[in-house]
Amino acid sequence: MADLIRTRCKQGTLIITDNQIKIELGQLRQQTLARSALTGVDSSMGVPSVFGLGGGTNLVFHGQGAERLHADLVKPNVAREIVNLLGK
Predict the structure, then answer these.
(1) Which of 65, 75, 64, 6 is nearest to 35 (CA)?
(2) Nearest of 14, 16, 8, 25 to residue 84 by alpha carbon
(3) Which domain of life does this protein belong to (predicted)?
(4) N or C: which terminus of the chain has fewer CB atoms within 10 Å of its end residue's CB?
(5) 16: number of Cβ within 10 Å
(6) Residue 7 to residue 14: CA distance in whole angstroms
(7) Could you read off the pLDDT of 12-23 as tens digits, one per residue?
(8) Pick from 27, 82, 87, 78: which is nearest to 56 by CA?
(9) What are phi and psi of 26, to 5 degrees?
(10) Residue partners of 7: CB distance under 8 A and separation at least 6
(11) What count of other Cβ atoms lies within 10 Å of the Cβ of residue 50?
């Protein structure tokens, strides 16, 4: 299972594979959402670009029921790529 996207976020490392969306919070902790359970993705500007530093976008991955994964302060160009990839 190869990583399609691997990027940093405020919580740790956001990893998107063919089967799951995962946020590694440290060495032993992680949050996971199966891509088959994904119902939508919301994105909002978290921090505007200041002095050319690029800013950050907050992503919320919605699963079935009340499942949610939050990835804050993802680089805006990577966040756009994620939204386009998941297309929901």
Answers:
(1) 64
(2) 16
(3) Bacteria
(4) N
(5) 20
(6) 5
(7) 999 999 999 999
(8) 78
(9) 170, -165
(10) 13, 14, 74, 75, 78
(11) 8
Cβ(22)–Cβ(31) under 8 Å?
yes
Sheet with 30-34, side-by-side order of all strands: 3-8, 13-17, 20-24, 30-34
pLDDT digits (tens, 9 = 90+) for 15-61: 999 999 999 988 789 999 999 999 999 999 887 776 666 789 999 99
User: How is residue 85 written in tokens?
Assistant: 């990839």
Please state the pTM of the whole predicted model. Answer: 0.87
Domain boundaries, the chain: 3-86
For the chain, what's the residue count? 88
Q: Which residue has the tokens 């699963």?
A: 63
